[in-house]
Amino acid sequence: MKNALYYCSIAALLVIGGWFLRSQLHALRQETAPTELVPTQPLSTRSASVMGAYSSKVALVEFSEFQCPFCGAYARDVEPAIRKKYVETGLVLIVFRHFPLPTHPLARTAAAAAECAARQGKFVDMHDRLFLDQSKLTAMMPERLASELSLDLNRFRRCADSEAYHTLDSDVASGLELNVEGTPTFFIGPIQDDGTVKVTTRCSGKRPKQDFFDAIDLALSHVK
What we know:
Blueprint (H helix, E strand, L loop, with lengths): L1 H36 L11 E3 L6 E7 L4 H19 L4 E7 L8 H12 L4 H10 L8 H8 L4 H25 L7 E6 L10 E4 L4 H13 L3
Parallel strand pairs: 2-3
Antiparallel strand pairs: 1-3, 2-4, 4-5
Helix pairs in contact: 3-4, 3-5, 3-6
């Protein structure tokens, strides 16, 4: 009986000790991860498709792709509120970086379409249509959308066949340097005098709009 109680006590102590250790490690990760993830070097906004004015105070740099369901949910459910509250009022510039994942076979085709539409001044329109009809995305959809948006189709085709992929590959390389592992991933911070972004918050995945509001307000508080 005494032996049974002894071993039960040891087992209970091991369980409690393991729980305590896991809780401490979790707390440590929660404290240290944001600091580790936020890049110390400012981010460039050059050669990117944008929403808003370059005179904005804060930038939201988004690494995204058009076949990612979380990116689609953000674009449809969260981004409109950000655009209304911050972009349309001249406070925030949304900077879109392409990060098509290899697991999504149509992502590069859609990204090329958005990039080629951007070169004809229709990035936002193509972006919105691709995400709105995301569940119906096919290899032929981008050209149909280009026609509906009254783009120069010959120019669009030349761009989509080769030209756009230089930008896509450059964006992916930039994302990899920032340890972007999935989409969507966001970097938010004040825009500096040279046009670069001093990141104050990094976040990724599916998040409520209030998280973005809080991160943008934090960045605005750092604006001189």
